[in-house]
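Quick one, tokens below:
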């Protein structure tokens, strides 16, 4: 697979020239100062039409900040070691912090309004205003909120930036399965988890984890500081526990999240049963977590990028022709970067941040099935973004628990298409196993990650947590999942240290479990209703974050995610996947 055939995005779509970007920066400062002069301290006395005008002015500022921030971060993600890109991100973050520090009064003053259903010109902002009112009891004074935004530049944002730079520069020397020397990054090393050569797979995985462990001093310090900052912020804002701020942002109750996590834990046996079966099928007596993604066939299929693109486009296009066109526009419009480059940010993401911007997709394409699934996943995010652009700037973004809806649904569409097009039973088995392993990673592994976070935050209450203690907590939580079915390689103790969500967004991970199970239920509904479901599903995506997730799902596709048996019903879908595997095997 030639790297030159892989697409790279064109960021001139966002800013054709440096002059245009600099002009936006200057205009942004002027608009922010004018907004403060006109509205600060006056929101409570405005008429509904005047308050709607304030939202319109706020949107212009928000969208300009988003454009600057997206351009800067995508530039940095393309080459995290580039000093100019680092400087661009830093300068943009400083500018953004200064602007939001001035405008922090807006949401604080909205929070002091009386809660009601806002109608007329404020109808489209009603949900957002009431969310601000709900958060009022957790708000600080305007001075403290503004100072906190500025202080984050040398605090949280500095730490997350350092983490990205460390992981982006992480590399080590090894030998490939043919015995040739090779220089590996995080992305290329983890790709070997799907290689058929067990010795190479185990060696490279262990070397990668040991390389991560060699950075234990800086990574443990970063994480301790992140957790301490979260603790202090949670206490200052009078939240009841470390997960409550995330649950409030996600617009789901803590009880609902706890019920979901407990339901998943109650079915950890699904994971053990599957890997016990895989160990028997692959005739591996000492099955380790370096084997969990090993292909079930000796030679796993490799995809060229055109093959991957066509498969993903067909999956979306067969479901809905308009969705297929939206996804195709990412390729035609130079809004997708799939090439492997030194210094490029590991992993994959879709980034847009504003209803005025088209989304961009970032991934590192390695040609295996997982890369194709990742392409479908991130383009699902892109589809969700493009459909939600019809919303205003405060209703556009989705909470984390529903952010994965289109991405996971798109993966299922791809997997079902590939399954249908596979003629040989062995190919079908390999595909279903890959799908099963993706679901297990999303539902069960992300629950383990959440439980680790809870344990780490609880441990930090006692004082600074050593790297060794973090390793112990990590192995304990993973041990609950794997039991005797999977032995963890020795270096896996460092598995906690490279998870970006722990650093960037504490308690993000449960949203993956939440979202995956919710999508399994949505797909079941699609199987029952067929074409009639599509209209409701696409409407769900187009509504973005304009309603709480439970209400959004209920009012579009008619499912109730607050029912006690909802999660167990979704887990039953995974049981049927296991039956499918056993039947094919």
């Amino acid at each position: 697979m030639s790297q030159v055939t892989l697409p790279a995005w064109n960021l001139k779509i966002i800013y054709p020239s440096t002059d245009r970007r600099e002009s936006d920066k200057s205009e942004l400062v002027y608009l922010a100062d004018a907004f403060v002069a006109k509205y600060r301290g006056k929101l409570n006395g405005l008429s509904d039409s005047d308050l709607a005008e304030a939202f319109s002015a706020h949107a212009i500022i928000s969208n300009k900040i988003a454009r600057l921030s997206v351009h800067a971060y995508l530039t940095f993600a393309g080459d995290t070691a580039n000093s100019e890109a680092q400087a661009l991100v830093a300068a943009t973050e400083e500018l953004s912090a200064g602007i939001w520090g001035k405008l922090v009064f807006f949401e604080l003053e909205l929070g002091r309004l009386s809660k009601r259903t806002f109608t007329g010109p404020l109808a489209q902002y009603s949900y957002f205003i009431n969310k601000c009112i709900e958060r009022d009891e957790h708000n600080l004074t305007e001075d403290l909120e503004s100072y906190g935004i500025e202080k984050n530049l040398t605090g949280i944002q500095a730490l997350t930036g350092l983490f990205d730079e460390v992981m982006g520069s992480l590399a080590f020397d090894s030998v490939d399965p043919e015995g040739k020397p090779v220089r590996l990054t995080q992305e290329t090393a983890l790709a070997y988890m799907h290689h058929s050569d067990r010795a190479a797979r185990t060696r490279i995985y262990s070397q990668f984890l040991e390389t991560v462990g060699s950075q234990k001093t800086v990574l443990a310090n970063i994480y301790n500081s992140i957790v301490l900052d979260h603790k202090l912020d949670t206490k200052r804002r009078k939240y009841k526990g470390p997960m409550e701020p995330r649950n409030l942002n996600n617009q789901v109750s803590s009880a609902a999240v706890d019920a979901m996590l407990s339901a998943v834990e109650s079915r950890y046996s699904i994971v053990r049963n599957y890997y016990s079966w895989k160990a028997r099928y692959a005739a591996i007596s000492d099955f380790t977590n370096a084997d969990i993604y090993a292909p079930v066939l000796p030679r796993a299929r490799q995809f060229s990028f055109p093959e991957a693109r066509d498969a993903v486009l067909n999956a979306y296009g067969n479901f809905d022709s308009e969705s297929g066109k939206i996804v195709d526009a990412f390729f035609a419009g130079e809004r997708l970067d799939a090439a492997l480059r030194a210094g490029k940010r590991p992993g994959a993401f879709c980034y847009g941040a504003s209803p005025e911007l088209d989304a961009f997709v970032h991934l590192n394409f390695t040609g295996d099935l997982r890369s194709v699934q990742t392409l479908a996943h991130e383009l699902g995010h892109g589809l969700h973004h493009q459909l939600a652009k019809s919303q205003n700037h405060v209703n556009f973004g989705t909470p984390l628990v529903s952010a994965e809806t289109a991405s996971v649904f798109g993966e299922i569409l791809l997997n079902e298409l590939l399954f249908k097009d596979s003629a040989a039973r062995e190919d079908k088995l390999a595909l279903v196993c890959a799908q099963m392993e993706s679901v297990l990673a999303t539902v069960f592994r992300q629950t383990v990650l959440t439980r680790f976070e809870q344990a780490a935050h609880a441990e930090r209450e006692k004082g600074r947590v050593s790297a060794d203690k973090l390793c112990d907590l990590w192995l304990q939580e993973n041990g609950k999942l794997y039991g005797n079915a999977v032995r963890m390689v020795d270096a896996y103790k460092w598995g906690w240290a490279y998870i970006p969500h722990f650093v960037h967004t504490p308690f993000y991970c449960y949203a993956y479990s939440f979202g995956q199970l919710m999508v399994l239920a949505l797909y079941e509904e699609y199987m029952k209703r067929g074409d009639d479901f599509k209209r409701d599903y696409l409407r769900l995506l187009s509504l973005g974050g304009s309603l709480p997730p439970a209400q959004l799902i209920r009012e579009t596709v008619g499912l109730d995610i607050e029912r006690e048996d909802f999660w167990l019903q979704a887990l039953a879908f995974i049981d049927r996947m296991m039956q499918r595997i056993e039947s094919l095997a």
